[in-house]
Write a structure and sequence with these properties.
alpha+beta; Ribosomal Protein L22, Chain A; 3-stranded antiparallel β-sheet; 3 helices; 5 strands; about 30% strand; globular
Length: about 120
């Protein structure tokens, strides 16, 4: 068994500015339809939710990239962050099987200015 981790932090205003300047292009490149639907439902704090999902995707890539044969084989939208009925986030890989990945855990948080995410990946190899 091997354990890897990834962490990312981002300024929420950076994501807000990018979305305001390139809304459809940016959203459609980074987020799945379900993630967009979830973030948009948050109204006044939607940019915090977009930012924390961006940080989460960066943290996921950091946690799994050393184990990928082709570093570019995972795109932004291959990893979807969905919340369970209790609000706990989970990583769901869409149409992608990450070889030897046994499980992946994620923790995300945000405040007024920053969003942060940490990922732990457990490998069976």
């Amino acid at each position: 068994m091997k354990v890897t981790c990834g962490t990312d932090i981002i300024e929420i205003n950076r994501i807000k500015k990018t979305i305001e300047e390139n809304e459809e292009e940016f959203k459609n490149k980074i987020y799945t339809k379900e993630e967009i639907k979830y973030c948009e439902s948050k109204n006044n704090v939607k940019y915090q939710h977009y930012a924390v999902r961006f940080a989460a995707k960066e943290a996921i890539f950091k946690a799994i990239s050393n184990s990928l044969k082709d570093k570019f084989s995972v795109s932004w939208k291959d990893a979807e962050i969905i919340n369970d009925e209790n609000g706990r986030p989970h990583v769901h890989f869409i149409n992608k099987k990450i070889e030897n990945l046994e499980s992946i855990e994620i923790s995300m948080s945000h405040c007024k200015e920053y969003a942060v995410a940490s990922v732990i990946a457990i490998w069976d190899n």
